[in-house]
Design a protein that fits this description.
180 residues; mainly alpha
Length: 180
């Protein structure tokens, strides 16, 4: 049987599949290569390093965010970003890492900035909103993970109990006074 050929798309698909199965701490180039039945060095044909691969994964996670459109309501765009991050295990952490290193495509920030064009510093405000969403999603995913492995006492106060109300209040507070 001839070895299968892979491209950037199939490597990212595999990484996302593994991400959901094993989580970011156990996601390695070696693990992805084993899943694809190739040598780890084969992955470097498509990505120069793991962080570049993770930037591709982050771009794929955020591909569900709508294209920039000034007629979109900021709260709707923010919700789409949050939903995209929560669609994958450790999605917020992957996107945050790529964002911190300024790798990947700023799709979410562009969509948020377009919805905030009435603000004179729409790009800066979009970054602030994006960072709030990343933090919020990270909190939710950390809590879900802790609950899934039994690391949270059953009677412990849940900081995510009112997460939707907190999310909406945060977006309103950050965008107060801006036509959205």
């Amino acid at each position: 049987m001839a070895p299968s050929r892979h491209d950037r798309h199939s490597v990212i698909d595999c990484a996302l599949h593994l991400l959901d199965d094993i989580g970011l701490p156990d996601l390695s180039m070696r693990r992805i290569a084993a899943e694809l039945e190739v040598q780890p060095s084969a992955l470097y044909w498509h990505f120069p390093n793991k962080q570049a691969l993770l930037a591709g994964v982050a771009d794929r996670i955020l591909s569900a965010v709508p294209a920039p459109d000034a007629s979109r309501d900021t709260s709707q765009v923010a919700r789409a970003v949050l939903d995209a991050l929560l669609a994958y295990r450790d999605g917020a952490e992957i996107v945050m890492s790529s964002y911190a290193l300024r790798l990947g495509t700023p799709r979410a920030q562009r969509a948020l900035a377009a919805s905030l064009t009435a603000h004179p510093d729409s790009d800066v405000l979009a970054d602030a909103v994006f960072e709030f969403i990343l933090g919020h999603a990270t909190l939710l995913q950390q809590r879900m993970h802790a609950q899934s492995i039994g690391a949270v006492e059953p009677d412990a106060q849940d900081p995510t109990a009112h997460s939707d109300a907190v999310f909406c209040a945060g977006i309103r507070a950050l965008t107060a006074g801006v036509r959205t």
